[in-house]
User: Which sequence fits this backbone?
């Protein structure tokens, strides 16, 4: 005879990592420590050697986590709310550290008790089952879990619910016919989104030195440029992923960035790390067959972007100067890959032009946070009082770029490349149009994306670029 207690009298034990939330708090806290207290990272191997429970405890102590920002599974939360309304006892039973588990329980207000890992006990799998069975008999509890580590608990539960299962849990659920809550569809789309292929448009800059040599039919130079483009794109995607992992908290506070794959939990953090490492391997593999100077520039780019991710992006003005330098680095990389010269004029124009766009980016980010934005809220070195200064500096930098272009067109150096320099003069108002229009849209709060990507996708800007390219060719060959 089945001696199971009635359902309403059975407690429900709910797993946290991967079940209640679309993430894992061990990985979350590791990247929080990397962001908040990077000096502690060197101690991680020692904590690991002392056991997983110690690692979880030290990471939890080393950072401040806002439980309200975690990517909760709404289907699971709704299930628990219904059961709570029906009078069920609900217990959070997790391998996460007890400090974090209590923070989650306090935020949701649905749990009657919490079972979690301590400094000495990693409460997962059999240990969790033993703790539950010490208070309840077999089949006298319900369990909600997601992974192979939960199988032993699911088997002993009166009613089992499998949430977004891994392969082992999926096979178990299919065999037993237990209740199931699936993960959201679109994993492949999320991976592609995390790589941000639209940002690869920025790497077209590697072709600029080749274009300025007028060697449009030199297949060797074009191939070198293409390889440089692929290498930089793979490296950039790896950096974007790494940066997103460091910025989980800030992204979750942002009205649009919270939908990014890692911030929303659409992609697991370990998956992101594997993807970033694969992209990095592709980038370095391609760099190995290009001139060593290109590899040096690529290495400098990656070191700078890593420094930017950790601390430069939070430093007043240093962040935008770094961004302008990174754009210019792409031009230098194209020059080194193809053996094409980058002139002083080109680099000076690039620095001022992209500094203006970097300031647009900061201006719009600060504007999105609204009145009362402060450093801790934005994750940057700016406050809302800086909006006007950023606007003035950005427009001034854009005008300086146009001035550099005008001085170049009026210099003797232009006759080395253009038979009819006067045909290139209209480039100045075309560039001016692009810059001023972007700033007008930004000040109207109508600029909601990366300004460089905006230029590449905006049809008016495309018209200006197309007209400029036509004038460029006419000036060179007429």
Assistant:
């Amino acid at each position: 005879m089945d001696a199971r207690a009635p359902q309403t009298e059975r407690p429900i034990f709910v797993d946290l990592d991967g079940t209640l939330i679309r993430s894992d708090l061990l990985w979350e806290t590791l990247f929080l420590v990397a962001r908040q207290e990077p000096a502690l990272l060197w101690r991680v191997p020692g904590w690991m050697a002392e056991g997983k429970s110690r690692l979880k405890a030290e990471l939890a102590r080393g950072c401040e986590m806002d439980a309200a920002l975690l990517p909760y599974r709404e289907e699971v939360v709704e299930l628990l709310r219904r059961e709570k309304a029906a009078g069920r006892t609900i217990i959070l039973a997790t391998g996460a550290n007890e400090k974090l588990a209590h923070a989650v329980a306090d935020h949701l207000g649905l749990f009657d008790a919490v079972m979690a890992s301590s400094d000495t006990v990693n409460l997962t799998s059999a240990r969790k089952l033993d703790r539950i069975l010490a208070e309840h008999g077999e089949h006298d509890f319900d369990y909600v879990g997601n992974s192979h580590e939960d199988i032993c608990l699911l088997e002993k539960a009166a009613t089992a619910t499998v949430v977004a299962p891994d392969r082992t849990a999926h096979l178990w659920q299919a065999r037993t016919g237990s209740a199931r809550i699936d993960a959201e569809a679109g994993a492949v789309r999320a991976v592609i989104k995390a790589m941000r292929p639209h940002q690869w448009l920025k790497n077209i800059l590697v072709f600029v030195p080749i274009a300025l040599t007028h060697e449009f039919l030199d297949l060797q130079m074009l191939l070198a440029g293409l390889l440089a483009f692929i290498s930089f794109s793979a490296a950039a995607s790896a950096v974007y992923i790494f940066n997103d992992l460091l910025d989980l908290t800030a992204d979750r506070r942002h009205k649009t960035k919270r939908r990014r794959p890692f911030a929303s939990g659409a992609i697991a953090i370990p998956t992101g790390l594997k993807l970033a490492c694969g992209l990095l391997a592709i980038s370095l593999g391609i760099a190995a067959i290009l001139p060593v100077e290109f590899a040096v520039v690529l290495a400098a780019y990656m070191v700078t972007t890593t420094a930017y991710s950790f601390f430069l992006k939070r430093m007043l003005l240093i962040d935008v100067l770094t961004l302008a330098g990174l754009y210019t680095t792409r031009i230098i990389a194209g020059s080194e890959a193809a053996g094409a010269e980058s002139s002083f004029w080109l680099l000076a124009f690039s620095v001022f032009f992209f500094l203006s766009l970097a300031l647009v980016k900061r201006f719009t980010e600060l504007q999105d946070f609204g009145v009362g934005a402060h450093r801790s809220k934005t994750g940057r070195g700016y406050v809302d009082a800086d909006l006007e200064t950023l606007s003035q500096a950005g427009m001034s930098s854009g005008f300086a770029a146009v001035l550099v272009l005008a001085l170049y067109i009026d210099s003797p150096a232009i006759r080395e490349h253009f038979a009819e320099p006067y045909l290139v003069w209209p480039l100045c108002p075309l560039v001016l149009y692009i810059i001023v229009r972007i700033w007008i849209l930004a000040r109207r709060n109508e600029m909601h994306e990366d300004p460089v990507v905006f230029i590449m996708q905006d049809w008016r800007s495309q018209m200006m670029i197309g007209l400029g390219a036509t004038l460029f060719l006419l000036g060179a060959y007429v």
Q: What stands out?
A: The chain has three domains: 7-181, 184-342, 359-478. The chain has a mean pLDDT of 90. The chain has 22 helices and six strands.
